[in-house]
Amino acid sequence: MLVRQRAYVEMTVMVLVVLAGGCATLRPTELAGFTRSPYFEEQVKTYTFEPEVTVHINAPAASAFDSSKPVQLVIFALPNGNTIAQTIGCQKAADRDWHFYIQHIGAQTRRLREVLTDRNLVVAYVEAGGKSWPAWRGKHEDSSPRIAALVDSIREHFPADTTTVALTAHSGGGGMLFGFINQVEQIPDWIERIVFLDANYSYSEKDRHAEKLEAWLQRSPRHYFGVVAYDDREIEVDGKKVVGPNGGTYRRTQEMIARFGRDLPLEEKTSGAHGSWRGCNGRLDIELFENPENKILHTVLVEKNGFIHALTFGTPHEGHAGELFGPPAYEQWIQPEPAAL
User: Fold this and answer.
1) Domain boundaries in the chain?
2) CB 291 within 8 A of CB 275
3) Share of the chain residues as helix, strand and coil, in percent rounded to the nearest 5
4) What predicted TM-score, i.e. pTM, was given to this entire model?
5) What angle do helix axes 249-263 and 209-219 make, rounded to 10 degrees?
6) Residue 22 in this model has a pLDDT that exceeds 60
7) Residue 128 near residue 78, CB atoms below 8 Å
8) 47, 134, 154, 203 from 140: Cα distances, Å
9) Is residue 178 a contact partner of residue 169, using CB atoms and an 8 Å limit?
């Protein structure tokens, strides 16, 4: 009888410990200096990084932020002409600006949080003054060290030892990423992903971009590099070509394929108008879409799960959280009204 009672007591203690541990992981984690958004109770913070850069950080709700899990901090450099609120996106409404419907990074983030449950997914939107990273860089001669300091200012909000960073960008936002790469002699190991969503206009052999990216890729199996682009050479607006005879992301992407293919084994796959080049066991991913009808796909690549693809390629979640250039997988997560910053 005493043995049975002792066993019962021990089991009860174990249950209480387990329950206590479970309660601990569910305890709300309120981030210092953040406020609660009216949408999905997300934790948000907006601040200005001088000169003229607006930063908006979006973290999971306090009830969903698990301090026992690592943080994946995704820095998203905005495209030319877009505000942070437009980039986050919202539902359509009469007389509402169309820019709110072309990226939906907010809703794509919420979809990703459904599937990337082993981390706290945080997105930091960075908007350059004048809504153009290339123009901002041209205005400031010391733009590269300023960009590196900007990244550090965002990282400071989270524990350095449990936080990794993904640098992502659309359109002219790619200039911010290349500015960071220009500044460092060696890409830091705490950067886990670098992805250009039709944003690699500034790629340059002269600036040793491929050399630095290849060294970083080969240094760790936790490093991922991606590019998504399309054939923009013949697209027109009002009867005029959008890119010059030597410009555009298609040409830069072809250069990157040739350079990476020279130094690293690449597997090429083609399906219709879609070409894919993979290397480093799937951690190097270049997706290039031909464009026989000369449509403007610049924002469509992002809208059709481009951001979801950026954070899942090379993992078991690729294609399951949302297929690149497939139907949007995040519609239920689109907020009703624009974010108030």
Assistant:
1) 35-333
2) no
3) 35, 20, 40
4) 0.91
5) 50
6) no
7) yes
8) 20, 10, 20, 19
9) no
What angle separates helix 143-155 from helix 174-183, to the nearest 10 degrees?
100
What value does the mean pLDDT of the chain take?
Answer: 92
Q: Whose CA is closest to 253, among 299, 296, 198, 295?
A: 198
How far apart, in whole angstroms, are the C-alpha atoms of residue 45 and residue 267?
A: 42
Q: Which residue has tokens 């907006």?
A: 46
Is 288 exposed, middle or buried (CB count within 10 Å of its CB: 0-12, 13-18, 19+)?
buried
Q: Closest Cα to residue 254, out of 209, 280, 286, 224? A: 286
- CA separation for the pair 334, 184 (Å, rounded): 37
The top-level CATH class assigned to 35-333 is alpha beta
Token pair 């990074």 is found at 105
Q: How many helices (H) and strands (E) does the chain have?
A: 10, 13
Q: Is the dihedral of CA 158, 164, 168, 174 positive or negative?
A: positive
pLDDT tens per residue, range 293-333: 989 999 999 999 999 999 999 999 999 999 999 999 999 99
